[in-house]
Design a protein that fits this description.
The complex is a heterodimer.
Chain A lengths: L5 H26 L2 H30 L6 H6 L6 H6 L5 H23 L7 H22 L23 H16 L1 H13 L4 H32 L10 H26 L3 H24 L13 H22 L16 H33 L7 H24 L7 H24 L5 H29 L5 H11 L1 H22 L4 E7 L4 E4 L2 E12 L4 E11 L5 E3 L2 E5 L5 E5 L1 E4 L3 E11 L4 E10 L1 H19 L10 H14 L1
Antiparallel strand pairs in A: 1-10, 2-3, 3-4, 4-5, 4-6, 6-7, 8-9, 9-10
Chain B lengths: L1 H21 L12 H28 L5 H53 L1
Helix pairs in contact in B: 2-3
The chains are: A alpha+beta, B mainly alpha.
Amino acid sequence: MSVYALGPLALWIGLALALYGAVVGHLGGIRKDARMADAAVGAVFGVSACVALAYTLLTAAFVTDQFQFSYVASNASRAMPVWYKAAAVWGGMEGSMLLWALILAGYSTAAMLALRHRQPFLVPHAAGTLLAIMSFFLIVLVFSSQPFVRLGFLPVDGQGLNPLLQNHWMAAHPPSLYLGYVGWSVPFAFAIGALISGRLGPEWITAMRKWSLFPFMFLTIGNLMGSHWAYIELGWGGFWGWDPVENSAIMPWFVAAAFVHSIMIQEKKGMLKLWNVALVTATFALTILGTFVTRSGIIESVHAFASTNIGYVFLTFLVIVVAITAGLTWWRADLLKTESHLESFASRESAFLFNNLLLVGIAFAIWWGTFFPFISEALTGQRISVGPPFFNQVNGPLSVALLVTLGVGPVIAWRRTSARSLQRNFLLPTAALVAAGIAAVAIGIRQWYAVSVVAFGAFVLATVVQEMARGTRARMARGENPAAALVRLIGKNRRRYGGYIVHIGVVFVFMGIAGALFVQEKSVRLAPGETTTIGTFEVLYRNTDLEQGPNYVASVANLTVREGDGRPQRIRPERRFYPTGQEQVTTEVAIWSRLFEDFYAIVDAHHPGPGTADLTFIVNPMVLWLWIGGGVMVFGLLVSLSTPRPKARPAAREGMEAERTGAAAG
Amino acid sequence: MIGAALALLGLWVLLAAVWLAVWPFFRAERAAPDADEVELRDLRIEKERLLGEIHELELDWETGKLSDEDYRALEARLKGRAIEVMREIDVREAAALERRSRAGRRKRQDTKAGDEARRVG
């Protein structure tokens, strides 16, 4: 028996165990039957082992060129480097579904190991829900997107992975985004557990705080990696095109951001219980919706998989998820009532509420724009698409308002803030806002969005700096030196200051986005030795080299770029031809990345006879701040994630002591 | 040869997976989670949470976000709630202690009775 025969067998057994565990988990939870609950947890581990085995076998098939499998032959070739062969596993539909299942298995196992003793009433239902989600993916893998289908003959070579995907950022982007997408299954499963068990107090919210921050961090990383890939690989000079698949990836980010803020209000005030259930369900549903958009072909996208019927399977699953959650929410409506009300409009709760509305509003605007072609076709028979201007016009003002809440939130207290302290706390940030706005206009910035980002960005940064300075000063009053005071201030309030660091990162990201308003672009045909200028840059085209890569041939333009009297910089944009399988041509741009602007060069064509080259040059201001901001956001999230969880310090020793004493007394 | 060994290993993994899901039904009954215990643990978490909130409130006051008057009022309210929770914890811990002592005595009496019965038998 070939070891690969175990692949489909593992998926079948995994499916049987997942269905069994889904039933046993919920039954065990309802009947409070410990054996059934343990069996569901055991089923999570068992299914995870099956999925891990299937994934290992598929990876082995890719790495060892097992072209008898249709999926391997379609997505790999002998000439591909081993790293890309391993990454090609998720380059197509079947493997990406298996990767999804693997990550879900990982999350489910980790959640069970961490929480099965701490949340005995929620875990059986959560296990049942996670296994129900897993059943769906395994049904897809067993009946629709089977990764182990044999061809019936052995091809000499495979077709190779789409060259656009042969990029290390693209190799890392899907796992990161999936870690973000799939991770929301855990908070969703515990929300379902809380709804079924009726334990809708702070316990599930407290337990899920880190389990939501972690996938939120990966949604951030995944979206940034996708933007970076688009920037360096698609060769159009931008990092975000409001493409439906890009939109599908960013929508859950906004709703998830709303959730990680609003859970704090439930923890502290017992408010927004229903809202939090709705947000966690919406985030999970949007991750499924994103998968539907990518795989259904209903909306055209440069990132979409080939059009298949599998999208409608996802849509059915989505409808079931929403219907069940809505039914359970209606059933538990009494337990979802708020325990308290806003004490003052000038409170952090109200700032968070406003920020929640903005985040959800932005997500809704993106959803509307993305699905408008689909909706208009369904209603009128005409497919009307909305382009980037719609998204920019709607989201521009909303995102500036969001920046305002990022600044306001940190300087007001929970519950209520007095008018005097509002005055005192807003003085410096408002001064920074006005000064930055005037400075922006003075240096010639006229676009309202860019001026707003500079002004309100300064406002946010000023609030964070002020907060950290005051906190540090308060600790210094206890005799600590400034450095120790700052470190201890953050160390003892990691959740709060981690959040503030994320806000700094968001400001940097906004600066990167605003820079896109000042892009300069020039397309020219140059002969060897000719120069051209763009902005403050002068470019010399020297010649074009033909180079052989591992699985491609490249025309590489040798360019020298100089800004003013600065040091010349050599850059080499490429145009690659991949002869295997898909015979595709790709552009490999060259970027001279600097703190305040990127010089971006693209080879559009090379004419071997005269030796001329058609080249496009783009000056992209502030792009580096997008990636720096992303890094700062991830750092802030890590600081926040490192918060020790509140411990239930049990009087275990006294209990044991009593048992012993009781026994002795008897 | 290596292929067969790997296939056998894979089969073992699948068998272990099935066993993990069914073994609880082949072992002795385990008591269902004790609601009192879980509630006691939740109260302890609530206590830690309230202490954290008092700490945050203090930080808000130290960084000038709260007037002295607001700070004192809110602190008194949070401390009052924390004291209530701690009292509830004490009551429940005492009850749990009593339950355990009783269970221990019963166990000892059962053991004694069993030994007696065996001796008589």
